[in-house]
Design goal:
281 residues, mainly beta, Immunoglobulin-like, 2 domains, five-stranded antiparallel sheet, four-stranded antiparallel sheet, 17 strands, globular
Amino acid sequence: MNKRLGGYVTLAAVIFLLFNGCGGGGGGGSTAAAASPMTMTSDKAIALANGNDPVSPERVTLTAATTPPASGIPISFVITAGTGSLVNAAAATNASGLATVQLRRNPLSGVNTREDITVKATANGVSAAKTVRFINLPAQASVSIALNRVIQDLGVLTFDLVSSATQSAPQFMLVTPVGAAITFPRIGPLGPGTQNTYTISVGPTTYSLMTTVSPGITTIVNGDLLTFTYNIDPTIKSLPTFALGTTTPLAVTSLSTGAVPVAPAVSQTDFVVTTVFSTDN
């Protein structure tokens, strides 16, 4: 009888230890909250290093996002590389799980040279970082236009190129077509926030994307078709941007084939516009 009772006591002790070891019964154990994944984005990848401007230095807006979106999560922002400063930082995420901060280049005693500045955001032990480049005021911008797919016998290409409103004065663009001689090196003007349509076609006084013999050229994926050299006004406060306009570009085959449209038709998503500033080489 005592032996059996002793067995029951031992079994009860094992159950007690297992129960408390698993945290049952609210035994005072704590569980850390799972950390949410986070990403960092910026509204621009490159900006003017004009931190010495007392009125309107260019700022870059950085956004930290939690996944899934959650509001009220404290976010800390810190610069881990570069001579920048943070302003207007959000202390916590909003209803969409976003928190923002603005980054500017600090004023320097010497010449503002090119510099990459990295900002890290941290929440619940999880971090994400974003790097932004600041450059001197450029004298020129080299804007190249390419297609991201192969087109056979390209003969005529029509597109709109739009400059942002930050360009304070109209300028002319120098154009270098690929695979053709330069007849008239200037087209334009392309003023602030304007949209100009240029047609590149075959002829003695126009720009051509094909050689003087048929068929036309076969495009290379992301290979430059045209390069524009844009003179930048020295009074600008932020870097200009360049993009295709709202008019749907149209490409056709060599004129020797009767100008048959390319299939599938070329759209704005097929174009790659790349800008390189003279102070970012």
